[in-house]
Amino acid sequence: MREFYTITELTREFGISTRTLRFYEDEGLISPVRRGRTRLFRPADRHLVKQILRGKRLGFSIAEIREIVQMYRDPPGEVGQLKQIIAKIEEKRDELRQKRRDIEDTIAELNASEEGCVERLAELGVKG
Questions:
Q1: What does the DSSP 8-state code read for residue 28?
Q2: Is 15 left (phi over 0), alpha (psi -120 to 50) or beta?
């Protein structure tokens, strides 16, 4: 296992910008080692970046990701973190289910409106 990764290596590996990594550092999510002006990332930082990006893909906010990361560092530790992740996943799943219901309702309303328009056009003797 490598001791350090450069910012360039991580940006290429994860397809993100240097600004993104600096943002995660500013937010306290990762803590690279500084050698002068150079940032060196430990394998643990690399792992955190991977987890942060996964959290973002799942729809977690930076604040939620920070909470989960901090929980791992402090009590209740990994068990608490895993339970919190499960709760957050269920919350996100519920939000997405609601969005799906809202989209289905909107599509049904659009279909009904379109059908009404087509019927009215037929009443007016105009073919669609």
A1: T
A2: left
